[in-house]
Write a structure and sequence with these properties.
This protein has about 260 residues and is mainly alpha-helical. It folds into two domains: about 70 residues, no CATH class; about 160 residues, no CATH class. It contains twelve helices and two strands; from the N terminus they run H-H-H-H-H-H-H-H-H-E-E-H-H-H. A two-stranded antiparallel sheet has the order 1-2. Helix 4 runs antiparallel to helix 5, helix 5 runs parallel beside helix 8 and helix 6 packs antiparallel against helix 8. The longest helix has 25 residues. The chain is globular, with a radius of gyration of 22 Å. The mean pLDDT is about 80.
Length: about 260
């Protein structure tokens, strides 16, 4: 077996992003929770493989599959711009287990004010970590800006949740189940733009097809952040808007009426 060629473009995803299947395979790999179990030594080994390959040095015996595996492990743990290791819960591989846990708790403990406040705070704290960890490396955010974004988003989420909760007291129970989703949607509209406000001020890097940096664009930053806000809200729909309808239907069945949740 010959040495691995240096013309493999690991700057781009492995699969064709113009197709749904290609995008699905890419994002399933990026968000693979198993990457959270990798040791520091394994992460460093993957980083060395990727950095060496980009520098024109091929690790002896390296196969193409191993190279792509190292690339995705590297991407899952290190910031793409700064190269710094991202805090564990801020990594894309933590999105599935963290969001499943938090979303489940918000949908379960939505009836009492203290639990509503607590889980909205937990959710926004997690969102703040994710947004900060995955910000553009060319637009650093100050501690003051970070604090403002975090407090504003948390306050907005809690206020929305409590306000809607009070309005739904005399409405059907199903309506109350949608309060967590409404609070999350409102908070995303606050959290993301504030957390990435530096990008809105100075813009984000714009490159040509060859990867050469052409400058910074505020317009691109606005468009990108708007798309992130919309996508975050849409991503919450399957987990926070569909289960309430299912649970409301199931709770009317006899097998759940025997021991209803209090």
């Amino acid at each position: 077996m010959g040495e691995l060629p240096l013309d493999i473009n690991i700057q781009e995803p492995r699969w064709d992003q113009s197709t749904f299947l290609g995008r699905a395979r890419h994002f399933f790999t990026v968000t693979d929770p198993r990457n959270l179990l990798l040791s520091g030594a394994q992460l460093e080994a993957s980083r060395n493989i990727v950095q060496n390959y980009r520098a024109g040095v091929v690790t002896p015996g390296l196969t193409e599959d191993q190279l792509w595996r190292a690339k995705y492990v590297y991407d899952s743990a290190f910031h793409p711009d700064t190269g710094e290791k991202v805090v564990l819960i801020g990594r894309m591989s933590a999105q599935v287990p963290m969001n499943m846990t938090i979303t489940g708790c918000m949908l379960t403990f939505y009836r009492k004010t203290p639990t509503v406040v607590f889980w909205q705070w937990v959710n926004q704290s997690f969102n703040a970590v994710v947004n900060y960890s995955n910000r553009s490396g060319d637009a650093p955010i100050t501690v003051r800006q970070l604090g403002t974004a975090y407090v504003s988003a948390t306050t907005g989420a809690v206020a929305t949740a409590l306000g809607l909760k009070s309005l739904t007291k005399h409405l059907p129970p199903l309506v109350g189940r949608f309060v967590p989703f409404a609070a999350v949607a409102a908070a995303n509209c606050i959290n993301i733009p504030l957390m990435r406000q530096r990008e809105l001020q100075v813009g984000i890097p714009v490159t040509d097809e060859a990867g050469q940096r052409l400058g910074h664009s505020v317009t691109a930053a606005k468009q990108g952040i708007f798309q992130v806000v919309i996508s975050r809200i849409c991503m919450a729909i399957p987990a926070m808007a569909i289960p309430p309808v299912i649970m409301d239907t199931l709770e009317k069945k006899d097998f759940l009426k025997v021991a209803p949740y209090k």
